[in-house]
Amino acid sequence: MASLDLILDPQLKYWVLLPITFAMVLVGLLRSNVTLLLKPQPKLEGYKESREKQFLKRAACFRSNNGLLTKDEFDIRQQYYLEKLNSTEFYAKIESSSATPANPFTDGATNDALVNMAKGSLMNYIPQTLIMGWVNYFFAGFVIMKLPFPLTDGFKSMLQNGVATPDLDVKYVSAISWYFVNLFGLRPIYSLLMGDSTAADELISQQQQQQALPNIGGPGGPKVDKVFKAEAENIQILSHDSLYDGIVERVLNQYPI
């Protein structure tokens, strides 16, 4: 059976296609700016937490770059890191293993994460719900454009949402489908208008999915004592190979006189 062809009114692109696109772009930019205004300021890290992280970084740097040290320097630093890693001197917080687990909902960080998640969900779903309702109310059943290239029938359900015409050529696009095409394909427009591809990616991800739930049970990473112990074990088994050993022979071999 031959596909049904339609003659489209040229005014459709001015009164349906472009308004849907402009509305989604403007609402997306507005939501991006409102989200930026509502985004909480990062909290300053405490001195002890910063010192703990910096010490672990120093230990990791020593483990990765010890070839730049002489044998005596390596031994001194290895002994120092083993002593400190096996102590609690650089711990930001010492937790008792017998302590009763704290209620996560009494933790301010967890409450802030839940509030931020709720704000993100509202900023995501309310505008999209309003736009979707607007398109459904005014443009339901509209066929607004015809694609200039052929497509297989597998694209029919994606491009002709809301148009119950099985014989219609797959190249025709309905208003509802145009809404979804804009929803998932506006990244280049956002990148051009914002001048920042990272911000555009973040805005697209906000449109397409909910923000992830926070970890209600608290941080899911390993305990600090286990991290320090593992780093101490890695440093304990280090074998030192100095880059200065045989350096004269290597230079002479690379640059013969």
What's the Cα radius of gyration? Answer: 30 Å
Main structural class: mainly alpha
Coarse shape: elongated
Q: How are the strands of the biggest sheet laid out side by side?
A: 1-2
Q: Count of helical segments?
A: 10
Helical amount among residues, as a percent range?
55-70%
Give start-end ranges of low-pLDDT stretches. 209-219
**Overall pLDDT score:** 80
Could you tell me how far the N terminus lies from the C terminus, measured between alpha carbons in angstroms? Answer: 84 Å
Query: What proportion of the residues form beta strands (DSSP E)?
Result: under 5%
Structural summary, described in words:
The protein is mostly helical and 257 residues long. The protein has one domain (12-91, 103-254). The chain contains 10 helices and 2 strands, in the order H-H-H-H-E-H-E-H-H-H-H-H. It has helices at residues 12-38, 47-65, 71-85, 108-139, 156-159, 175-185, 187-194, 197-208, 224-236, 247-254, and strands spanning 143-146, 172-174. Strands 1-2 form a two-stranded antiparallel sheet. The radius of gyration is 30 Å and the shape is elongated. Its main location: membrane. The EMC seems to be required for efficient folding of proteins in the endoplasmic reticulum (ER). One of its GO terms (molecular function) is protein-folding chaperone binding. This is ER membrane protein complex subunit 3. It is found in: Membrane.
What is this structure, in a nutshell?
With 257 residues, the protein is mostly helical. The protein has one domain (12-91, 103-254).
